[in-house]
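Quick check before the chapter quiz. The format below is the same one you will see on the exam, so make sure you can read both the input and the output lines.
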Amino acid sequence: MASPTTHFILVHIFTILVATSHAWKPKFSSILVFGDSTVDPGNNNFIETLFKGNHFPYGRDFPGHVPTGRFSNGKLVTDFIASLLDIKDTVPPYLDPNLSDHELLTGVSFASGGSGLDDLTTVASGVIPVSKQIEHFREYVEKIKCIVGKEEAQKILGRALVIISAGTNDFSFNFYDIPTRKYEFDIDGYQDFLQNRLQIFIKELYDLGCRKIAVAGLPPIGCIPLQITAKFKNPKDRKCIEQENLDSELYNKKLERLLLHVQATLPGCRVVYTDIYNPLANLVNQPEKFGFEVTKRGCCGSGIVEAGPLCNELTPTCEESSKFVFWDSVHPTEAAYKYIAKYMEAEVLPKFVNSNSSEIYL
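Here is the expected output.
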């Protein structure tokens, strides 16, 4: 039988271990999301555009089996992150006219499927560019000021987790598939153009009170099934497009350096680079290691062209979506998003905790 002293030491050690295991977890007041279809929970439902995910089979595995406007079979990365942080189970679209005060105060998404940092990206689709999303955010700020007052609203904004995920559509629509911007920029110049737009956007968020910002890099664009389809006509030749992936890697390296510079110019702000490339590349290159089987096509239809309106109630889907990295020809499955969220939990969220002490940024 352990002595009282030994018992006290064991209890003390256990207490320290428990505290340490949770010490990384920062406290956020809410979650605010900007970007494209990877983080749009349904804003496109409320605008005039054909690019919507508010019909079956989208939402097949979402709670209640309802299509919400999310371009996936279930939840998005941001939904999982909000749940992991005990903020809310899912992140609603800002444009939903029926949002409660509680929903507004705990966070919303301003993202729009098909969006980009370049305004040219959204001209044909009519979706909401990132530059317009900041206007909606200004409206949002005024709304929460009316709910809780100016001082409390500023506290909420300062403690909110902001997630930005945009850029993929800019390259897909404007540079690779429809090379409009190639007449103005080489790949290096277009990357710089987009990151300049992003830097301006982050400054605008900062000026409105945001202080904790996670910015996603590009995924391996060359592994998106639709990009593979555009490159390889023969199904037997399907493989990731190496040059597009190299372009994504170069963009991400530049972005990491840029965000360090941006953080240094914004006092009291934490701006964190969020690696999306490697976790998604892991699933594509070593699917069996993570419980996946199919990587070169989506679950919906043939999986090589169907997305948005082409993935619909008349389109057959695979039986086990959890075995597929992609749900349609563009967007990952809920299973892939869940893996990316767990990766962010381990590698990104801890960076919002003060590295010099156990103090949490509030």
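If your answer matched, good. The first helix runs from residue 4 to 23.
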